[in-house]
Amino acid sequence: MRASREFAENAIGEFFDPGKLVAAREKGLSENEIRQHARAGDYRPEKIPEVRRAAQPATSL
């Protein structure tokens, strides 16, 4: 996975709706199929959560 083109293009991955993932599994999709669909953004939530960066520690000179 880490050597794949998809990982190189987007190492963090996609946000996903857990319910959509569960529904895909219940439909019989394999782990690989679900991973491919998730990386393609097929299970994105309707609203992407806001991501905030962690505060940077103060540096002294």
Protein model, in words:
With 61 residues, this protein is mainly α. The chain has a domain at 5-39. The protein is built from 3 helices and no strands. It has helices at 5-9, 18-26, 31-39.
Topology:
Layout: H1 5-9, H2 18-26, H3 31-39
The H-and-E topology, N to C, reads as HHH
What is the residue-averaged pLDDT?
86
Strand residue percentage:
under 5%
Q: Report the sheet with the most strands, covering strand number, pairing sense and barrel closure.
A: none
Secondary structure: helix percent: 25-40%
The dominant shape is: elongated
Q: Which residue ranges are poorly predicted, with pLDDT under 50 across at least 5 consecutive positions?
A: none
Number of helices: 3
Q: Whole-number radius of gyration?
A: 16 Å
Our measurement of the CA-to-CA distance between the termini, rounded to an integer number of angstroms, reads: 41 Å
What is the number of beta strands?
Answer: 0
Structural class: mainly alpha
Region (Disordered): 34-61
Biased composition (Basic and acidic residues): 34-53
Summarize the structure.
The chain has 61 residues and is mainly α. It has helices at residues 5-9, 18-26, 31-39.
Properties at a glance:
mainly alpha; 61 residues; single chain; 3 helices
